[in-house]
Request: fold
Amino acid sequence: MSEKAIEMQDNQEEVIQEIDLSAVDEICAKYSGKKGAVIPVLQQVQEHYGYLSREMIERIGENLNVSPHQLYGVLTFYAQFYTTPRGKYVIRVCRGTACHVKGSGRISEVVKEEFGIGNGETSSDLKFTLEEVSCIGACGMAPVIMINDKTYGNLTPENARAIFREYANKEE
Ligand code: FES
Reply:
């Protein structure tokens, strides 16, 4: 086997996971020559892929003629951008005081039991991400979670588990 072939075999996993970046080019083309393109391009690329990988950031840089260093500066400044893959369903468990007192820690544990993920982690099937957040303004229904943009309150470990399983069983 040639050296190249061995190298390819070693990188097989990487190759399989290689992402088609043509959407990055298409999005950048819409903004070609326009001022203030960086943020809308980053937003749209993230919307398309769900996150911004190193390869995507480099490609955006090439297209817009902006250094990756500058792009990373923008990414770290705005909390809306993610550089690692996120789940299709983002479970936000409120860890504000009211929810904490009413047992939100136990709800996070149920997420861990069901999907094996802790705070900030994404399940390997890319279906769920867990984020522990501060008060989301629904303290009257504590403990509260959000799954994407839906809010669920007055949770117990049991009904939270039932909700999580419903999402886990949803068709793609
Ligand atoms: S503390 Fe959880 S919603 Fe306010």
Remarks:
- Strands lie at 89-94, 128-133, 145-147, 150-152.
- The pocket of FE2/S2 (inorganic) cluster is lined by residues 94, 96-99, 135-139, 142, 144 (CB under 6 Å).
- The chain has two domains: 3-77, 89-168.
